[in-house]
Design brief:
The structure holds two protein chains of two kinds. By secondary structure, chain A is mostly beta strands. Chain A contains no helices and eleven strands. In chain A, the strands form two sheets. In chain A, strands 2, 4, 5, 6, 9, 10 and 11 form a seven-stranded mixed β-sheet that branches. Chain A has a four-stranded antiparallel β-sheet with strand order 1-3-8-7, with no helix packed on it. The mean pLDDT of chain A is about 95. In chain B, the strands form two sheets. In chain B, strands 2, 4, 5, 6, 9, 10 and 11 form a seven-stranded mixed β-sheet that branches. A four-stranded antiparallel β-sheet of chain B has the order 1-3-8-7, with no helix packed on it. Chain B has no helices and eleven strands. The chains are: A mainly beta, B mainly beta.
Chain lengths: ~120, ~110
């Protein structure tokens, strides 16, 4: 069955970077985009961008351009999202998802990233 | 950016009821709209895409309609597991955006 398993919770200081991993199984990793979303606890959902694991191509929300990098390692079926120059506003649960068309049909369990001094 | 406005923000209903949520887009998005259900502490689940196509495994009591700027999600015969928060998502233009959600509580 399709599974996306994300790395564990992180606590970072302002100005630091975070790297979240997303290991895919149960499907052909190179056949689907991986999207990244985030959700501030108790609030709505925000799209950060996607990576095409087959080509390495990416598309990022303008809000995060220059601060986010998404990659995929096809040798281990794992996608990564790195977010730099963290502030307290980046405290959220980060999700990776499998792109089914443009919508997301499978989601990881979420990774809580807390930014605090 | 395309803004999605969901209404109501909160809805209270009883088991067996039929409920309808609305999602309005700030500009036309054809049928590039998806609906998700999110239970507390869990990741969202895809319910409907292309405005009205039921995702595999989703019960038939869920249905979606609409095109352009106005969309609806209807749940018939509410079951206990349906009490959750529902989000719409537009896939017409970047950045992909979500509505603020409708929380459905049991009366």
């Amino acid at each position: 069955q399709v599974q996306l398993v994300q790395s564990g919770a992180e606590v970072k200081k302002p100005g630091a970077s975070v790297k979240v991993s997303c290991k895919a199984s149960g499907y052909t990793f190179t056949g689907y985009y991986v999207h990244w979303m985030r959700q501030v606890p108790g609030e709505g959902l925000e799209w950060l961008g996607w990576v095409n694991p087959n080509s390495g191509g990416t598309s990022y929300a303008q809000k995060f351009q220059g601060r986010v990098t998404m990659t995929g390692d096809t040798s281990i079926n794992t996608a990564y999202m790195v977010l730099n120059r963290l502030t307290s506003d980046d405290t959220a649960v980060y999700y990776c998802t499998r792109g089914y068309g443009y919508q997301s049909d499978y989601w990881g369990q979420g990774t809580l990233v807390t930014v605090s001094s | 950016d395309i803004q999605l406005t969901q209404s109501p923000s909160f809805l209270s209903a009883s088991l067996g009821d039929r409920v309808t949520f609305t999602c309005r887009a700030s500009q036309g998005i054809s049928n590039y709209l998806a609906w998700y259900q999110q239970r507390p502490g869990k990741a969202p689940n895809l319910l409907i895409y292309a405005a009205s196509t039921l995702h595999s495994g989703v019960p038939l009591r869920f249905s979606g309609s609409g095109s352009g700027t106005e969309f609806t999600l209807t749940i018939s015969n509410l079951q206990p597991e349906d009490f959750a928060t529902y989000y719409c998502q537009q896939l017409h233009s970047y950045p992909i955006t979500f509505g603020q959600g409708t929380r459905l509580d049991i009366k």
